[in-house]
Specification:
Structural class: alpha+beta
Helix content: 10-25%
Radius of gyration: 17 Å
GO molecular function: coenzyme F420 binding; oxidoreductase activity, acting on the CH-CH group of donors
Largest sheet: 8 strands, antiparallel
CATH superfamily: Electron Transport, Fmn-binding Protein, Chain A
Number of strands: 8
Oligomer: single chain
Low-confidence stretches: none
Pfam families: PNPOx_N
Protein name: Nitroimidazol reductase NimA-like FMN-containing flavoprotein (Pyridoxamine 5'-phosphate oxidase superfamily)
CATH class: Mainly Beta
GO cellular component, one term: cytosol
Shape: globular
Distance between the termini: 19 Å
Order of helices and strands: HEEEEHEEHEE
Number of domains: 1
Keywords: Oxidoreductase
Number of helices: 3
CATH architecture: Roll
């Protein structure tokens, strides 16, 4: 399997899913994970809206390092595909908020678009962005090209820098 095929598989997983699992670091060093619906901007940035009072948002205010996994939990056991990534998260800066809010909500017609004022104080949501550092794709152990030949899955880097 070529790097191009691995990259295409990873892009397909990202494009096909609306939820990602966001992992943040609590003050005591423990992990906190939460699902959020997201909009990808290629494979470099991932956007979501959350309350600044949520556990993960408070964690990000203290430590912006995140881990993310994007996967389809509806597939049969043993058929999973997933993309893992590490990133640095931030609040979307005020000067980018209008454009990025429109971009974020464009993936979700059911949201009817966020008004920028809904994402500023005193309202309860903010727009966040994770800027990716590294990506990997999960390859099933039984994959004919990159599998381990066992039941052990492996991760392969995609979009290497």
């Amino acid at each position: 399997m070529t790097q191009e095929i691995l990259d295409q598989r990873a892009a397909a997983v990202i494009d096909a899913n609306k939820y990602m699992t966001l992992g943040t670091i609590c003050a005591d060093g423990t992990a906190w994970v939460t699902p959020v619906y997201f909009t990808p901007d290629g494979h470099s940035s991932y956007y979501w809206a959350s309350s600044p009072e949520s556990v993960h948002s408070r964690n990000l205010a203290r430590d912006p390092r995140v881990s993310i996994v994007i996967h389809d939990s509806s597939v049969a056991i043993g058929k999973a595909s997933a993309v893992y990534l590490t990133a640095i998260a931030e609040l979307v800066p005020a000067e980018e908020l209008e454009d990025r809010a429109a971009f974020y909500s464009s993936r979700y017609p059911e949201l009817r678009g966020f008004e920028v004022d809904e994402l500023r104080e005193p309202e309860g949501l903010r727009l966040y962005r994770a800027n990716s550092l590294d990506h990997w794709i999960l390859i099933r152990g039984s994959d004919p090209d990159h599998g381990t030949g066992t039941g052990t899955d492996s991760r392969h880097q995609v979009w290497p820098t």
